[in-house]
Amino acid sequence: MSAEPAGRVLIASNRGPVSFILGDDGKLTSRRGGGGLVAGLSAIAGGAEVLWVCAALNDADRAAARAAPDGRLDVSLSADGAGPLGPESGAGPGGPESMVRMLDIPAPVFDRAYNGVANSTLWFIHHMLYDTPNRPLFGLAFRREWESFRVYNTAFADALAEGAGPAVAPAAGPGTRAMVQDYHLTLAPRMLAERRPDLAIAHFSHTPWAPPEYFALLPDDVAREVLEGILGADHAGFHAQRWADAFLDCCEAVLGAQVDRVARIVRHAGHTTTVGVHPLGVDAPQLRARAGGDDVQAHVTALTEAAGGRKLIVRIDRTELSKNIVRGLAAYRELLITWPQWRGQVVHLAFAYPSRHDLPEYREYTASVQRMAREIVDEFGTEDWAPLVLQVNDDYPRSLAAYRLADVLLVNPVRDGMNLVAKEAPLLSERGCAVVLSREAGAAVELGEGALLVNPYDVSATAQALHEALSMTDAERTRRAALLAQASAACPPDKWLAAQLSALETAARRQPA
Ligand code: G6P
Question: pLDDT, tens digit, for every residue of 156-172?
């Protein structure tokens, strides 16, 4: 790490760095937990003694959690996040400095907290996804979910308080720091501060933050509890200034908190929280090394053959309502209608991987994506040209291969905290891909100069941007690609973490002893 976070660091996130599968033989096998959050946080490995508290997400996780001595799994974190392997894997222990405590929260409580509140309520609020004539509807069922959300957050706060160990005397070096992640754990910082006032506590939101008028859809007491939960932390981090500002606006509008916008400080109920902007970028050397693997090369060969010398427009997303895949496909359709010269000359590779299939909205959305893709293929496809290839099974090496081959990358979320796809492709693309990027993604701040920014709701403007991207001169693409690659690698996970830890230390010193 560039700045070694010596001492003890606690991380808390819903999804942890490891998950388990139960084999037919009844044996548990561990594998790396998915997602950018885990990859980013895994960079903490060097120098720090880490305890990572996460939730058991399924029956195999629960079995592993119950079997673990003291509920703790020995895990090896590595900068590429690739090695969370416990004793069951036969890969050897990762050393006492990185342990995972997986919380076996009763399944119905977990379901109401994760699916009911985190994914169906807070995610919808921050991404402004509600179809407001019909939803949200905050009645008795929601109150039950909210109670479970409290129980779930309490379980994390208890585990962190216990895992923090004895208080460190100020003279003995940096005290224990807790880094609480995301909307699932918005109540935990306050709960933890009440249990362990000696800890320095940070919260980080990986999502956007809703503006006050939209945040106020939440019941008043819930809106207050969410904000006060985060304000239990000494430092609250966001990927972009815009989300940090929206949080400050909510603190003022909903809580009447004292907000200093210049210094980005919130004072509320006798506690001070600093608010920071910490944009996460990509570890370029690690990503490039991974993309040079044989498994990726095999996909490069197959995709090159499938493209048959045509240009490639690539998109890679989880099939997630905020990712705006249906409008992206509609824009591709308009491209082929408005600029027919591209017919037969371009192939759209759309990788839309499964996400949150417990929620009916996500299942319906996946069906809409598939329907729209079929329509495009039926309308434009010919004997020797498949205009669109939609893949719905998650395949990381194939995604890396697509990045390498992309001429154009389409990233058009309706709203996104950051979006790392937009930062990964420019680092790998061999031809210097042009990036068509939603102005509503956090990444637009850093990539705006190199990308073609679009309003994600404006399908015609997105089609126009795709046309411009495909038509760009080599010199212009190269110029933009260099800007994109530089911005994408500017803040890799180790720096991102170090900046938060240093902001947290400064913030913790502000509190009255
Ligand atoms: C996205 C968001 C993260 C969030 C994660 C949860 O990746 O950017 O902020 O933590 O989703 O996804 P999950 O699959 O665990 O529900």
Answer: 999 999 999 888 776 66
